[in-house]
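B., you asked whether I could sanity-check this one before it goes into the benchmark set. Here's the sequence:
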Amino acid sequence: MKFPRTHTLEEISELINCGYVGSGDFPVFGMNEIHVVEPGDIVFVDHPKYYDKALNSAATVVLINKDVDCPDGKALLISDDPFRDFNKLLRHFRPFQRSTSSISQTASIGEGTIIQPNCFIGNNVVIGKNCLIHSNVSIYDHTIIGDNVTIHAGTVLGANGFYYKKRPEGFDRLESAGRVVIENNVEIGASCTIDRGVTADTTIGEGSKLDNQIQIGHDTLIGKKCLIASQTGIAGCVVIEDNVTIWGQVGTTSGITIESGAVILAQAGVTKSVKSKVYWGTPAQESKGYLKDLAYIKQVKGLMSEIKELKKRIQDINK
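And here's what the prediction gave me:
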């Protein structure tokens, strides 16, 4: 997420009331999570396991809860609770805007687009040309939708990402200030939910088709011409490349990549990145090998029955 204007390190430190290491006029352009940071961004880190990753990332400002040596060309914001202060910045730069109508006056809707009754179109939403938005669709603020997109009834675009920090008093949610981006010629089925990015975009690529009742997590990137069947749940920060087919009731863990052309068969559980092959089972494995293993298991069962029958005959002979 980029700020409306460039801020200084000192200005950011004053917003969250924390100390800093570096020049007070060090430029700050925006803020992002570790997997999407660019030079000029703030990234936060609050666990020793990830200190080095954050300090060595593309981000040039690190919001951190430990006094460490500042890498060359970078600056630090020293906080006792980086998670809390990252949330403060998200709320400051992308505050919640109350809506006063079903279709916001700041929304842009292209020529030939049809919005059926009882839809909600939030602030600063952009919808392209010749789209069809069926009844009871909710499109949250800042969502971007291309041309020739169809969205069926009951779908929600732009809800909060499922991202929490466990504290003694309960779970603390990381604010979501990113967007959902739907590219041209996409069709989304009924009762789907696509969460917005925390600081970046959740994207559905051009020409992809989603069945009913699908969940897409925050910051996930789905490529072009993908097919995803119903009741699939895709976690946050997943990369699904072009021309991937995912059949019904598939689930994935976060942060993985499914390469172009892969096919994930029904009810598979994808727990790690996979290549351009066919997968099945939990954890997902190449389907040919999996089916061979099942065939071997059946053969073993048959052999066990034969051995049991042979033992019985030997006992009868010995009598």
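One thing to flag: The chain has four helices and 34 strands. Otherwise nothing jumped out at me.
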